[in-house]
């Protein structure tokens, strides 16, 4: 996540990257994409990311 970037802008940028990778036939399972996105969030999101990761059920998030 870039400094001063909100979550929507970060998500939009992340989605564009994933879609471009898909156009080159490079695909990732949804769970891996979600983990990559969680890891890319800024430190201010750490508590929320920890709760989501501890739930260990990313299948229910999408």
From TrEMBL:
One Pfam match: Retrotran_gag_2
Protein name per its UniProtKB record: UBN2 domain-containing protein
The organism of origin for this protein: Gossypium stocksii
């Amino acid at each position: 996540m870039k400094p001063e970037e909100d979550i929507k802008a970060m998500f939009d940028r992340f989605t564009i990257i994933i879609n471009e990778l898909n156009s080159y036939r490079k695909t990732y399972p949804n769970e891996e994409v979600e983990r990559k996105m969680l890891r890319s969030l800024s430190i201010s999101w750490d508590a929320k990311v920890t709760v989501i990761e501890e739930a260990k059920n990313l299948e229910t998030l999408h």
